[in-house]
Write a structure and sequence with these properties.
With about 525 residues, the protein is α/β, with parallel strands linked by helices. Helix content is about 40%, strand content about 10%. The strands form three sheets. Strands 2, 3, 4, 5, 6 and 7 form a six-stranded parallel β-sheet that branches. It is a single-pass membrane protein. It is found in: Membrane. InterPro entries: FucosylTrfase_pln (IPR024709), GDP-Fuc_O-FucTrfase (IPR019378), GT106_glycosyltransferase (IPR052272). It comes from Prunus mume.
Length: about 525
């Protein structure tokens, strides 16, 4: 519900002016939230007008009174022990370049940052399969995120080329003889050099039979669409290892992303170190945190709870009939009938683990796992559906919650402002340097970080969505039963290596392809 101010022709009258002045004086008293400084990690101010009620009031009340022993905290913050496998992205075969390149490969990548990241890895693999020269991939503007950032805006292109120089040839742009091969060229007509029929998870043979002849005939092939267009199975080990080398070694963010990420990490680890902008202390502090087990440590929570996620899930989030209608309309506008209203009830969706966790639910999960209110939480997220009203319960459970806005000044964030891919890149970087990472729902960011942190043997909590869905449906469950079920259900979900099964992504499950015996 927005605030509407109606202006009439007589607003200059003395009486109108007096009433306006009186209203202005009284607003701070009756609506203090509009005039108080924004809290930490607060996406919206006016969204608090429609505050959704807690859906788990019994659990919340107990969670707010929770006590965690030093022993439990010690176990939580202890890093993962060394496991049986270690990173192995280098091929056992010495890398080499072909005597002569067959021609150029162009790819056009849609999706958000992490979908594009996987597409870049696949593009390098396809170029290797075809003995072709890769043109730095073109990143499409996503219709949802609307970010026009290029590869070179996000990734360190010189590092990328240098790391892979012995594996494939890469050029930043096409030579003048091929300057006609642009996105606009392929958008205006059917072109012989465009490959648009690549099936999802195509085999290496498909590329050799269908793309190589185009490259040999014209000197270039442009593949679009390309997302998810290379199989995860039945590929030579050197190709699999190369994909991991790209993902875990070659793709490094540009210096200003890393510098901002390092500043955020430093401020999270040293809250009283005054490492914020000059003259400003961005971090909240609690006097009794210094000697706690988690001092100097932090958890990254990837809270994927934007309007897209809420609408796509077709779940009920407590906003009543109006919310259901609004999300159904949003589904139709954005996906134009490709995403239908669910045929399942909300209870069925939740028990199947198909509903994203709300901020309140992820807060209750963290509390049940043993994280107390001295835990420093970094919120990695895009716009949260429902704004501050949705986050308020999570903040009550974890008052030391931060995000990019609360940790860095507007001047420090100037280069990434309004650029979804760069914002996501900062969150990815901070997530890779956190002590613990947890995501509220599956998705490309979740998958990419689970895979990368598995590769680096970093503690990563994977929520059991079906278990939590069933627990949250039980409105009479006690806190002790809830906590016991959560702890037992997540004993083996803290980052233990899981071997990839057929058809599963190598970027989410890097073992065994990209790891070897320790």
């Amino acid at each position: 519900m927005g605030l509407k101010l109606h202006y009439h022709n007589h607003y200059h009258s003395p009486r109108g002016g007096a009433l306006g002045a009186l209203l202005l004086l009284l607003l701070p008293i009756f609506l203090p939230s509009l005039f108080s400084p924004l809290g930490h990690a607060s996406p919206s101010m006016l969204s608090e007008w429609n505050v959704p009620k807690s859906r788990h009031q019994r659990l919340l009340k107990s969670a707010l009174q929770r006590q965690t022993s030093e022993g439990e905290l010690s176990d939580l913050w202890t890093p993962l022990a060394n496991q049986s496998l270690k990173p192995c992205a280098e091929s056992s075969i010495a890398p080499s370049l072909p005597d002569k390149s067959e021609g150029f490969i162009q790819v056009f990548l849609d999706g958000g940052l992490n979908q594009q990241r996987m597409g870049i890895c696949d593009a390098v693999a396809v170029a290797k399969i075809l003995n072709a020269t890769l043109v730095i991939p073109y990143l499409e503007v996503n219709p949802v995120w609307r970010d026009s950032s290029s590869f070179m805006d996000i990734f360190d292109v010189d590092h990328f080329i240098n790391v892979l120089k012995d594996d494939i040839s890469i050029v930043k742009e096409l030579p003048s003889d091929f300057s006609w091969s642009t996105r606009e060229y392929y958008a205006t007509a059917i072109r012989a050099t465009r490959v648009k029929t690549a099936p999802v998870h195509a085999s290496a043979n498909w590329y050799l039979e269908n793309v190589l002849p185009v490259v040999q005939s014209y000197g270039i092939a442009a593949i679009a669409p390309f997302s998810h267009r290379l199989t995860f199975d039945n590929l030579p080990m050197d190709i699999q290892r190369l994909r991991c080398k790209v993902n875990f070694q070659a793709l490094v963010f540009v210096p200003h992303i890393r510098a901002l990420g390092d500043a955020l990490i430093s401020r999270l680890r040293n809250p009283s170190g005054k490492s914020g902008a000059v003259g400003t202390n961005y971090l909240q502090e609690m006097p009794d945190v210094k000697n706690k087990q988690g001092a100097g440590k932090f958890v990254v929570l990837h809270l994927r709870f934007d309007k897209d996620m809420a609408a796509h899930s077709a779940c009920d989030f407590g906003g009543g009939k109006a919310e259901k209608l609004a999300l159904a309309k949003y589904r139709q506008v954005i996906w134009q009938g490709r995403v239908l209203n669910s045929q399942f009830t909300d209870e069925e969706l939740r028990s199947q683990g198909r509903c994203p966790l709300t901020p309140e639910e992820i807060g209750l999960l963290l509390a049940a796992l043993g994280f107390d209110n001295s835990t420093r939480l970094y919120l990695a997220s895009h716009k949260v559906y429902g704004g501050e009203a949705r986050i308020s319960t999570l903040r009550r459970l974890f008052p030391l919650m931060e995000d990019k806005k609360s940790l860095a000044s507007s001047e420090e964030r100037a280069q990434i402002k309004g650029k979804a891919s760069l914002l996501a890149a900062v969150d990815y970087y901070v997530s890779m340097h956190s002590d613990i990472f947890i995501s509220a729902s599956p998705g490309n960011m979740h998958n990419a970080l689970v895979g990368h942190r598995t590769y680096e043997n970093l503690k990563t909590i994977r929520p059991s969505m079906s278990l939590l869905g069933q627990l949250f449906l039980n409105k009479s469950i006690s806190w002790s039963d809830f906590q016991q079920s959560v702890v037992e259900g997540h004993q083996n979900r803290h980052g233990q290596i899981r071997l990839r099964k057929p058809k599963q992504s190598i970027y989410t499950y890097p073992a065994p392809d990209c790891m070897c015996q320790a």
